[in-house]
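Design job #97: recover the sequence.
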């Protein structure tokens, strides 16, 4: 379909997306089978992000090298966020499915049918996987799946455009849709740095899901609550996509404030987690 209906630039971008995603999946397979150092994985993620930029898939906010730097940080950050989120049966795949569904809706609202089709295919793949990955899981995602999903969602988020609204508003939309993985990664980094641990190499039960499971007494319930939070973030993102600058600014302050308060209360007020 792309060959007949997509222009050459769009075809190049799709090739770049799938080349980078394939690299991430291959990296995950090698890491699952033999194990790789965190810095080797980081270098490969930077290379995959570079492929995106070279193919023309990049953030368009500030222009020039700043956009390239933001793109690289975004892709590497979201890829790692889903890798970190893969700590319970059905969690990373379910959150990826919810995010992909909202990306599909947002793409449809802005008449981006090719982007919407890609997001919908990603959502369908996650839904099919969840049938076997739901607790108790029969198959597991591993790095091969989580790195692939994170990379793909980061790329789809970059491709979204909202011509009916200002970039002063729309830059928030992908951050909101992927709000839970971003919050979880931020919390984990703060928690591990506070305890003098390396955030990239230290395992531990310091994720949002682990804390919810300890509070609720059930991993299934913890994952379902994470789904609800991910869905709430997505609904706020849809609101922001139609909002004025002042409305979006209020949302940014409320969501940002709640995020900072939650980190303070979880990690500092409640004492964080016990050292692993």
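Job complete. Output follows.
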């Amino acid at each position: 379909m792309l060959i007949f209906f997509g222009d050459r630039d769009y075809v190049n971008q799709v090739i770049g997306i799938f080349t980078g995603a394939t690299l991430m999946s291959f990296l995950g397979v090698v890491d699952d089978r033999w194990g790789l150092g965190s810095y080797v994985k980081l270098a490969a993620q930077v290379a995959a992000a570079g492929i995106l930029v070279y193919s023309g898939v990049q953030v368009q906010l500030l222009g020039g090298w700043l956009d390239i730097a933001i793109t690289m940080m975004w892709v590497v950050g979201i890829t790692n966020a889903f890798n970190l989120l893969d700590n319970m049966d059905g969690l990373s795949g379910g959150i990826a499915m919810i995010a992909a569904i909202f990306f599909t809706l947002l793409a449809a609202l802005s008449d981006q049918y090719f982007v919407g089709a890609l997001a919908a295919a990603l959502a369908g793949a996650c839904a099919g996987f969840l049938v076997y990955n739901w607790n108790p899981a029969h198959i597991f995602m591993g790095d091969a799946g989580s790195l692939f999903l994170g990379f793909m969602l980061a790329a789809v988020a970059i491709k979204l455009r909202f011509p009916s609204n200002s970039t002063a508003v729309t830059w928030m939309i992908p951050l909101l849709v992927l709000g839970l993985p971003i919050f979880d990664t931020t919390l984990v980094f703060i928690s591990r740095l506070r305890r003098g641990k390396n955030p990239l190499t230290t395992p531990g039960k310091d994720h949002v899901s682990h804390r919810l499971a300890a509070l609720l007494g059930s991993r299934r319930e913890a994952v379902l609550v994470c789904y609800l939070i991910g869905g709430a973030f997505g609904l706020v993102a849809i609101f922001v996509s139609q909002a004025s600058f002042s409305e979006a600014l209020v949302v940014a302050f409320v969501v940002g404030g709640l995020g900072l308060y939650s980190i303070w209360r979880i990690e500092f007020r409640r004492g964080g987690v016990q050292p692993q």
